[in-house]
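User: Design a sequence. Structure:
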């Protein structure tokens, strides 16, 4: 049996929109870091074991260190957003969710980089495919 979903913070539509100037730059950096990590991984994959023992060991080591640095920063950014109560769903698209209350139930306010404001929500079970236009402002209390 799985644990019930318990967000660390609940947002209203207004408080989630207020967070966008804070979270958008973090998501943009995460996207750049993820792209750099992918590029670094591809370059590292191109250095075969034979090449590593034939003068490319230093380059492989440098790429491995860069990959570690990028993974660490992405992880720190995800944890920072989680500390703010924001859930990262997809770095590549910049998709995040803000837990909220709608009609006494926890739902997720859904936002993606490039959108001007939070305009969609979905149930916990529906995910991105179940996004619906915002038709509420959000409640501040916990669900019953």
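Assistant: Done.
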């Amino acid at each position: 049996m799985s644990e019930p979903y318990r967000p660390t913070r609940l947002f209203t539509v207004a408080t989630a929109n207020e967070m966008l100037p804070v979270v958008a730059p973090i998501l943009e950096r995460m996207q750049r870091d993820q792209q750099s990590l992918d590029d670094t991984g591809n370059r590292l994959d191109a250095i075969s074991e034979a090449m590593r023992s034939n003068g490319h060991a230093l380059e492989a080591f440098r790429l491995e260190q860069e990959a570690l640095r990028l993974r660490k920063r992405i992880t720190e950014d995800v944890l920072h957003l989680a500390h703010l109560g924001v859930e990262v769903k997809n770095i590549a698209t910049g998709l995040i969710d803000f837990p909220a209350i709608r009609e006494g139930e926890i739902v997720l306010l859904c936002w993606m980089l490039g959108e001007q404001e939070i305009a969609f929500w979905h149930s916990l079970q529906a995910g991105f495919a179940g996004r619906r236009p915002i038709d509420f402002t959000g409640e501040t209390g916990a669900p019953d």
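Residues 13-133 form one domain. The CA atoms of residues 17 and 117 lie 6 Å apart.
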